[in-house]
Structures are given as structure tokens and as C-alpha cells.
Amino acid sequence: MTTDLSLATQILESSFQELKIEVKDWYESTVYDGSNSANNETSEFIRAQFGKMKWGLGWSRYIPPQQIAKFVCSCLGYDLLRYSPVRSLLIESFLNKNNDEEINSQRLSLCDALGASTHISDVELVKQVREMSWRPSSRSAITICQAIGLPTRFAVVGSSENLEPVLVANPVERIYPLLDFQEYVKTELTSVIEARGRSMVCMPTGAGKTRTTVEALLECFSSSSAFEGGILWIADRQELCEQAVQTFYRLTMFLAPGTPIYRLWGGMNPEIEFTFDGINSGFSGIVVTSTQQLRSRLKNRDLNAIKIRELCDVIIIDEAHRNLDWCIHCINESVRRSDYPAVVGLTATPRRRVRNETTELARIFGENMISPLPNSQDEFNSAIELLTNRRILAKRIDVTTHDLEIELQTDYNSPLNLNDAYFVSIKMREKYNLKSVLIFTESVEQSKSLTLMLNMAGYSSKHIDGSTPATQRKRVIDEFRENSLQF
């Protein structure tokens, strides 16, 4: 199967051949020439990636010429055509094949999309493509993609994912039932919500915290008239916000069709419908926001943020151990209300390294911890062990550098540097004969660099993070499940 990366690499390599360009000279003059300020940032990024991985890949001062096209395409990904030196080179190669009737037709379309005269010379047309302002999803961007032979994803994916600020779910027939330990957590949590109490849900990563909590919330709100307000879900990262939105969306289709789900993060500003019947105020629906967004809005006395906090019936704080001081302040402000909301924290790590943090977490959530199995509240590790034995969680394997027969450059107490992460990844795959490996890194930046490094070494690898568009994310996950990806 030809991937987008390999296709882009093939097209760039064929362009070098078509135009009889010396690849090494093109790379040096393009990436290391600072004369074009519009591309300085991208060139600097490419140079930085080379500097990070040249040692691990066995490169010296220069990239092997036969690797340059793949390296540039891997570095830039779906933003390849944003980089004007590549964009203009590919168009020049396209125009060089001017004897083909189809290409002449595409040339006319390109001129039309750019607002150029059909009589413009090829040299002037290439110059216009190089100097144009790249606008994702524009007609000119899509036309350039089609002319070059790249999927239109290269014209649209590089932009921010235009998420709708409000979602409304329609009914569906069925959802998969919760497992027995999830049902136990849901039952315990439902009691807390109905009593407007406080609790901390402690479930290991992969055990279904979000799905279980969302189902408990929706069942409470759909079966009881005691809740006039809505649900406020706070998460520390945008990726967790979107995970919550998608979970609510799937479950509201079955449990509460028509319920609005509001995205309140990343600059989105949905119009939330507040109600007042002369006695009670409230809002209908679910507001999902990031800690940073809500904190900033409350600090600036944003009226909608104040109303949401004061009128919601339930506050859910995902990864409650993060931003602990501010979470305490937010909860204290909310419970001053006469009709104080239920407050639920979610965490996969109830035992903190700093003892007073563990104590404070327990205090603000009412010393009430809900764990996946009955009578395991004080033994969180036992719950992990039992779920692992049931093959619900993957078995943890601790591996030393001695086992992998490698020596790390990174200090023991520091995060792995890029080259060490690279060697650990490939050695783990080899040692355990794994087809596909899922890697979690210290940062998004390291994940992107590691993906690039693995691709350059010949391993099929892809990266996803919180900003990855949903369609692209689904493609990557499907490829991983089908063992089409090694990392």
C-alpha cells in the first residue's frame, strides 16, 4: 500500500530527475540559504530535525543524497506544500511535461485558480506559485495538489481542524454495555451525583474512566428532574477535552438525544442557551472546557464562564491531580452556592509522589475514592493486578538497558533524549518480536521527531496528538490496528 509519505517522496524524487537537479545542491541552497525570510522558520525546523537525529541514524555532516527527498517530506508531512521551494519545484516539474493534453488542461485550471493570464510564461507561473500566500482548503491550494498528483489532504490537513463549537446528537439503536467493574463504578458514582456529593474516580489508564463517568452522568440527568443545570467537564489538555466530547456525543445519541455539547476551548466561543423561569436559572447541556480556558475566562470576569460555574449541577475534573491549587479554588467557589453541585475528580494516579498532594486530593473530594472493584479503595494496585489478569489491561513489562543490550546517553533521572528513545523503540520491537508498537513520548515535539527518525530508518511510523484532525486520526488508528504501521 502506497502511503501519502511514500507518494510525496516519489513525486519529489521524480521532480529532481525531471529537472536534472543535483539533490544535494538543491537541499543546501534551499534549507541553509537565509535569503527567503518567508521560509526561514520552516528551514530552521528542518535543520533542527537533522541536528537531533544525525547521530542516531549514523549520518555525519550531511544527509545522504538518496535520503533527502524522504527527509524533507517526512519533516513537513501534510504541510509540504506550505514550503514554497518545494511547491514551486513540483509545479516546475509539472509544467515541464507540457506536451500532454491533460497537463495543458490542468495548466489552464491552475492559471484560473491563481487569477493569472493563460498566456503567462511557465517561468512567471512558477514564480507566482512560489510567491503566493498558501491558504489551506483554497481553490488554488487544491488545484496545485491535483496538478502535482498529491491527495488533496496536502491542501487541507495542514490547517487547524475546524471543529464545530456545538454538537447535537441524534438517536441510535444501541451501545456496547459496560463491563461488570465499570457497572460497579457507575452505580457508586450515580449515588454521589444524585446526592450532590464529592468523589474521586480512580481507574487505571485503559479501564474506561471517561466512558463510565459519561454514562453515569447521562443516566442521572435523563432519569431525574432534580437537575435543572448542566454538566461542566474540565480537562487539562485539548486532546482530553475532545475525547470527552466524542464520548458524550456517542452516548447522548442513545441516552439523551438532542442534548447540546459545547466545546469551550481553543478560541471556540459557543452560544450557550441559559434559562430562567422566574425562580430557577440554569443551562441545558454539557460544557467541555480546558483548565486554561476556564481559568482565563474566570480571571477576566467573563459572564458566560461565571454563569456556567454557578449554574452547573455537576463539575467533572479530569486528571484532577494537575493544577491542584486552582482546582481547589474552583471547587471552593462552586460549593459556596446554596444548591452546590456534585464534584467528581478523575485520575489514573491517586497516589502522588508528594504526600501532601495525595492528602489534599483526598480531602477536596470528600475522602471518597471509587475504584473499579469493591473493597479495593485502599489497594489501587490490586485493582490494576486483577484487571491485568482478566486481560482488560496490558501486562506491564519492566525492561532494563541491560536486557536491551544498549547504553543510554540520558541521565537516569531525566527524560529520554531523542536518540535514546529511538534505540529503545527499535530494540523493544526486536526483542519481543512485535508487529506494531504504540509509543508515548514526553512531548508532542519529541513524538514528531521520533516518528520522523523511525521513518528515515525504514520503519513505517505515524504520529497523532490532540490537534490531529479526526479523519486523519482514524486513518492512522486503522492502519495501526491492521499492523500496517510498525510504530
Short description:
The chain is α/β, with parallel strands linked by helices.
What is the number of helices?
Answer: 21
Mean pLDDT figure: 82
What is the total number of structural domains?
3
- Rg is 27 Å
Tell me the strand order in the biggest sheet.
Answer: 1-4-7-3-8-9-2-10
Kindly report the CATH topology of the largest domain. Rossmann fold
Q: Specify the CATH architecture of the largest domain.
A: 3-Layer(aba) Sandwich
Pick out its properties.
single chain; 487 residues; alpha/beta; Rossmann fold; 3 domains; eight-stranded mixed sheet; two-stranded antiparallel sheet; 21 helices; 49% helix; globular
Detailed description of the structure:
By secondary structure, this protein is of the alpha/beta class. Helix 6 (101-114) packs antiparallel against helix 8. The protein has helices at residues 4-18, 23-31, 40-53, 68-76, 84-95, 101-114, 122-131, 139-148, 153-156, 180-194, 209-223, 238-255, 291-299, 303-311, 324-334, 355-364, 380-389, 401-404, 418-431, 444-456, 470-481, and strands at residues 166-168, 198-202, 231-235, 260-264, 274-276, 281-283, 286-290, 314-317, 342-347, 369-370. The mean pLDDT is 82. The strands form 2 sheets. An 8-stranded mixed β-sheet has the order 1-4-7-3-8-9-2-10, sandwiched between helices. It has 21 helices and 10 strands.
